[in-house]
Design brief:
It is built from three helices and no strands. With 55 residues, it is mostly helical. The chain is elongated and about 50 Å long.
Length: 55
């Protein structure tokens, strides 16, 4: 843990609003490119759930 103080949701909101990875890194210089990839991977895993069919 590097003690960063930006939420996953905040990074996702920036990207969803059209900010590029480069812009996010410029606004938050303590982030690294791998941090943005980790945010995207986390979001992808959160949205991956089984679909249950109801009889």
């Amino acid at each position: 843990m590097r003690g960063l103080r930006i939420r996953v949701k905040d990074v996702l909101d920036l990207l969803a609003a059209g900010a590029s990875h480069k812009e996010v890194l410029q606004d938050y210089p303590y982030l690294e490119p791998e941090d943005i990839l980790a945010v995207l991977e986390y979001a992808a895993r959160q949205s991956d759930h089984p679909v249950l069919s109801v009889a």
